Request: fold
Amino acid sequence: MRELFTMWQNTRMIVMTAISAAAYVAVMLPFKGFVIIPGLTEVRPGAAIPVVLSFLFGPATAWGAGFGNVIADALGGMLSPGSLFGFIGNFFYGYLPYALWRAFMGHKNPVLSGGKGWLVFGIILVTSCLVIGSIIGWGVDLIRLAPFGALGPIIAVNNLIASAAISTILLALLYERVGMWGLLYFQILEQGGVDEEPGPFGRKAARVGGILCIAGAFIAFSAGLIISCEALGVGYGVTAFASGTKGTMAVAGGMAPGLLLILLGAILL
Amino acid sequence: MSLAFYHPTGGFFERANPVSKLIGLAAAFVPPFFADRPVEVLPYFGLLFSAALLARAGGNLVRVYKLMILLFVMSIVLWSFFYKGQTALCTLGPLVIMKESLLYGITIGIRLNCFVLAAIIFLTSTPIEDFTYGLSKLGIPFAVSFALTLAFRLTPLFIETGQAIVMAQKARGLDLDSGGILRRIRHYVPIIVPVLASGLRRADQLAVALESRGFGKGKKRSVVSEFRVTWRDYVLLSVVLLAGALMALYRFV
Reply:
């Protein structure tokens, strides 16, 4: 996680942050996706951008994804208290893919790493999407704008579909090329003399952090769904709207242990 | 494609200190949370609407009115159907609309629109430079606020590039609207790759240009324009805080 802060000493990484944010918004905003519920949700190809750019630009994408979300809200006239959780959720969505990959696979090319690589890549995709759904869904539920049972799964599934559909294709087309230009994040950080080895306590601790993140993502998301949809006696599905939100802190409290695990894991990464 | 909500008017809000405007925006988000019924949140909505007119944000309100209506209607529909109230109002087939659910949906709909109004007032009266100046004064490091400003500036360029690429690819036969969900998403690959490649080219040039001008070398930075705290800032913050205090008093006392 150190590189998230040390990268601000490197001009190239600062520029990459802006590029990541602008690219995210530019692909997210104008290109409408596949409408699922009119006015509420649609699968947008732009949702795959932070995952792809995370493998390329690392910590710059974490900040860029967060900024991109704020910019998209500002340009859409939708700045709100929810934008804060949008920033945090997207920050983790841009941070976890490269950090988890580095902890388990080092600096191998993500699309040329064999069976184990594909397995790790798949777990990373699912974890990142669950984390963004959990964080934004939790925050918006906490401030009682929308129930977790509705928003969390929508965000997670939308992002997963878009990332699964095109992230591997984009990485196959871009990773080697960007590496040849010397613009992969670890190349830039090494050139700048910044240590980009995983975690403050070494690779083993980073792997433990990765496992904590993965476990935390599943725990937080499951807890949110169960509490939002079932514990109040309304069963799973859309019937859980509102009941899990208005006047109760159950969802926020129930998800907290999972979210804390994610945070702890992210620090170790 | 017009992206920016800002237009210079020289009015009350535009001449307020960006730091006050940022604090005012954050504070303006709080009062709607004190309201649980439409009558409690409507006066605040009226106050923000009046402020939007004072900020000469009418044109921007026209741009976002569809979003505001959509938020309001979706909120009413969702909460009416899925929030469990006690007093039946009417039935729609198998669904029973409860009075409490409908009222709560209306409240949340107005609450969301209050956020839109507050954001529109801020965005109409604040250029990007003032926004980042405010962030810097609030303690955000210069490199961070610079990256945010740069991202704001690059976004329209990237969107233009993307639209040019879409037109070029469509002219070459790319069909974005056919096929199932995965196929349609994959159709975007020939668009996203050139957008990212052009971004990378820009990144390299930008980094060289910045470093050649000594970016990041000086510790103490100067700014082009300094803002003073004036009576406008006191009025702005007082009105927002007073509105919040009144709503909190009504709710809790």
